[in-house]
Design brief:
This protein has two helices and no strands. It is mainly α and 55 residues long.
Length: 55
């Protein structure tokens, strides 16, 4: 019984990990789909987010 509960807990963690990656992918897709220069705009957005954390 304990093993089954542990398995369900582990499955929940995996499910949330995939859910988080799905959300992140959707956000990046929307960011990169911008009509004006999507690649550079996406890169600039990522740099702006990372700069305060790094410095």
């Amino acid at each position: 019984m304990i093993g089954l509960l542990g398995g369900y807990q582990h499955l929940g963690v995996i499910m949330w990990a995939f859910f988080g990656m799905y959300i992140l992918g959707a956000v990046l897709t929307v960011t990169l789909r911008s009509p004006e220069d999507p690649v550079h705009q996406g890169a600039a957005a990522r740099q702006e987010r990372e700069a305060p954390v790094g410095g």
